[in-house]
Specification:
about 180 residues; 7 helices
Length: about 180
Amino acid sequence: MSKLDSVLQENIRITAQVITEICQRNTRKQVGDNPLTRNQCYILKILANSGDFLISELAKILDISAAATSKNIDRLEQQGLVKRQAHSGDRRSQIVTLSPQGRKLENEIQQITTQKMAPLLAQFTEDEKKSLLDYLRRIVIYTIADENNTDLICLQCGGRCGDDCLLESCKGICQR
């Protein structure tokens, strides 16, 4: 590996960590009376983007145990952000639904994120933004090339990418 490749690799890692650990953590602290965990925010986002889910499906998407997922849902339910109901086909399973209060909080999270990103994006020209978007798409495409569960990624985006979706299998399915 060349020195440049090594430096790029480290900077990609740092970028991902900064976005995840700093930007998202600060946003989570700004909303609601009780700061949400990363997984709780992901649950709200998935429900807002893709509708109701079984707890077992959310666990698969989050790559955590069903027990851990259920514990996160307990906390979200205590705050009135989600609701549980028994699955009609299997009474042992529960479906999680986003409440109106949960949708309002998810919208607030998105607004704060947009406000935080605006100064960053303002540093780039339109051509630079297009180039950056191209580079980021390539990073995502090559990162998930060997991934078997790319459909889980679309459950997180909720099909908002439309024709811009990076996953060939989803083009034309995703809607804006």
